[in-house]
Amino acid sequence: MVKSFLEYLSLERKYSVHTVTAYKNDLILFKDFLVTEFDQEELSKVHYHQIRSWIVSLVDLKISNRTINRKISALKSFYKFLQKIEKIEVNPLANHKALKVKKKIQIPFNTQEIHEVLNNFNNNDFIPIRNKLIVELFYSTGIRRIELINIKERNISISNKTIKVLGKRNKERYIPLLGSTVLALEQYLKVKKEFSIGLEELFITEKGNKIYETLVYRIINSYFSKVSSKEKKSPHILRHSFATHLLNQGADLNSVKELLGHSSLASTQVYIHNSLEAIKKVYNSAHPRSNKK
Fold this sequence. Notes:
CATH superfamily of the largest domain: Intergrase catalytic core
Number of strands: 3
Helix content: 40-55%
Order of helices and strands: HHHHHHHEEEHHHHHH
Radius of gyration: 23 Å
Strand order of the largest sheet: 1-2-3
Number of helices: 13
CATH topology of the largest domain: hpI Integrase, Chain A
Shape: globular
Strand content: under 5%
């Protein structure tokens, strides 16, 4: 049943390989717990008190509530699937309430920090030219790290100043490119020819291989560590900065949602709190009762 569930996630729900692997690992961990604590292997005959015992054991191991909720979400999806194929009648997690999680406030880079990084690429070698384009693309398009890694050269249209991105669940979207990004792209494509060995991926290493997630993280962390004292310096914070700065400049929420590739406005609304100061300025300058000087 687990194998069928994973195939369902991959083929029908179009979940990424990373997500499917995470679900698989969570189910294996839970099954190991069942065997150890209850001498039971059959997942379809589980009762909520057994799942509750697993949750308690995870808490005792000092695993965060956020991670526990993710593991339980995987279980809940599995039992929904068993209901769907009529292997069980009742989902044992139907009435489960997620553990409380403290909201993480992610602080975006400010425009000065981003400009400092982009203005410090003075070297015309392959690596700095590639890395500048990576920073440019993250900040000018708001794409995810995995989306950037999977960009193919054919996804870029220099003439139309657009890029086609393959997002979550294989959803395609087109994002406009700034003039500065197009210039960085053209410069990179020229120097890339010396290192490319026919790979269709846009971003490669010096050895001509496709770049990978940890390398992209290290690139962003390295450059922004020189200009920012913020705790988190990652590709996601650049995506966060992209959305926040657009909203600060008056972009409407629906447009930002489409650019980010979110399936619902709820996901995009997380960026609104960062725009509060900008909203206050608009409010104070526009309201008839404000004390404008």
